[in-house]
Amino acid sequence: MQGLLAKPRGFCAGVERAIRVVELALEQYGSPVYVRKEIVHNSHVVARLRREGAVFIDELHEAPEGALTILSAHGSPPEVYAEAKRRGLRVIDATCPLVTKVHKEVALFVRRGYRILLIGHAGHDEVVGTMGQAPRHTTLIETLADVERLSIEPGEKAVILTQTTLSQDDTREIVDALRSRFQWLELPPKEDICYATQNRQNAVKEIVGDIDLLLVVGSANSSNSRRLTEVATSRGVASYLVDGPDDIDPAWLQSRSRIAVSSGASAPETIVQDVIHRLRSLGVDAFIEVDAPDENVVFSLPRLTQLTKGGVTAIE
Ligand code: SF4
Fold it and tell me: pTM here?
């Protein structure tokens, strides 16, 4: 059995930045540092940071008054910032700049009198944060059936925005369906599906014709990781999401000749290497990494801020 390693794979710039924020906060201020929601959707990352002193909470009321609190990479609705201000929390906002871009698009288009049609998955942290920017003006579209049910007045101004981590194929299908029913719908100047999601899906598309099994390293709640498995299965190639090496079922490898491994944007490379190690022990020969350029995307770190009655005041 031959092994192929997709490239690019693994950590994106937004995930690197969010994890670094928690690490730096722990280094500079010590434990406990509170983190609202999983900082990124990966069980190994969350477990390591928890061991190092991060306290993961679902909502801000679980953090004591004045606590140092980090907001996750997926973005948060405005009421979270309002509560942080009310409770005098010291806040570091680790929202990925590419999610913030979508939040700004919502605000801009709503100011201009548009209705927002947001393509995304209900309940995902990013979608909760983006819909929260303008809930009365935003309609969530998850499926083609939602497009069928949608009603828009002729000439009503509306724009199609998307979650950053969707399948390019599914999104294109939904956008086409929307625009075939409502030809006047607009799109943002630059696509919302982020560079990391696109690059990882394109990398899988490049190799999927040469393999008969794809394993994607990522946690079950990682949207972009799940989408990678769908890229393969929608092209008739078996694919499984594995959180780590122990998830691999040896039966998956029976009668396979070429196996590829990729990983979602929140999956650490150490876990990818553990998965490769396990696959080699199950009979996969040496892995060859696909030759592709490095992404070289870096986002600058956010500042520690305290939300005060007068607004956001930098205190570091
Ligand atoms: S997957 Fe994209 S949007 Fe999400 S954190 Fe990474 S770069 Fe940002």
Answer: 0.95
